[in-house]
Write a structure and sequence with these properties.
269 residues, alpha/beta, five-stranded mixed sheet, 11 strands, 30% helix, 19% strand, elongated, MBL fold metallo-hydrolase, RibonucZ/Hydroxyglut_hydro, Sec-metab_biosynth-thioest, LACTB2_WH
């Protein structure tokens, strides 16, 4: 999907390893792990008020020692938060926590280290900021977003800066994902999207509404494909019809989403 409004005129990411200030309270450091699934790489976000000494780090990213040491070089770290547990966001978290002597907090207790976990509705007061935790399951069951009120929402893989995300079936559920998008669509106008991959976007509500429209279109395409293929096709057969215009390297990931779509058509969830 294209057409998302970007912040300012600069759509491209900075070179790997350069910290770039995006909003008054958020800067991004791009990990050097590009792939068809991670786009340019994983965005590690460093958050703090202008007069604060410590940062909050969102998604340290892969187990890349150079990237982790670079994050640490910008100053003391108060807390490490995870949007979800996929390795491109979380694999380096434990080593980074030990490097900077800071706790890791996440919804899934598997990834929590040295502190309590997170749940929907929590308010994190750290680095001179208040971050509101939104439970946004769908991409995964443990997906969270973090809201800096009046400024931005950090979306992990729930909303990307370019293209659309997958519903990682069976852990991810399409019904959950649609509800999460509706929640994001209600954020105040001009709340920026600071995503886990791709460039930042200017308006979370607009991006979420475009995602919802895309999901409705894909779901109708899957419904028609099921009928045309005789009523009981395999997920791969549906992918070959619905995602025929998508690079085949992405078909295995598309199959996850198709499985979620087929389950939604069967169960409403």
């Amino acid at each position: 999907m294209s057409g998302f409004p970007l912040i300012g005129a600069r759509a491209a990411h900075p070179r790997y390893g350069e910290l770039r200030q995006v909003t008054p309270h958020a800067a991004v450091l791009l990990a050097d792990n590009p792939s068809p699934m991670t786009l340019d790489g994983t965005n590690t976000w460093l958050l703090k008020a202008p007069d604060a000494e410590e940062y909050v780090v969102i998604d340290p990213g892969p187990l890349d020692e150079a990237h982790l040491e670079r994050i640490a070089s910008f100053g003391p770290i108060a807390e490490i938060l995870l949007t979800h547990g996929h390795p491109d966001h979380s694999e380096g978290a434990r080593q980074f926590a030990e490097l900077v002597n800071a706790p890791v907090r996440a919804l899934d207790p598997t990834f929590t280290y040295g502190s309590e976990g997170l749940v929907d509705g929590d308010v994190i007061t750290s680095a001179g900021l208040e971050l509101r935790v939104l439970g946004t399951p769908g991409h995964t069951s443990d997906s969270l977003c973090f809201v800096i009120d009046g400024e931005a929402v950090l979306t992990g893989d729930t909303v990307l800066g370019r293209g659309t995300t997958i519903v990682a079936h069976p852990d991810g559920k399409l019904g959950d994902y649609l509800e999460s998008l509706r929640l994001l669509a209600e954020l105040p106008e001009n709340t920026a999207v600071l995503p886990g991959h791709g460039p930042e976007l200017a308006d979370a509500g607009e991006a979420a509404r475009m995602y919802l429209a895309h999901r409705r279109l894909r779901l109708e395409q899957v419904r028609r494909a099921v009928e045309d293929l005789g009523g009981a096709p395999t997920p791969r057969q549906v992918v070959e019809v619905v995602y025929a215009d998508v690079d085949r390297v992405l078909w295995p990931a598309a199959e996850w989403s198709v499985r979620a779509q087929l389950e939604y058509l069967r169960t409403g969830y």
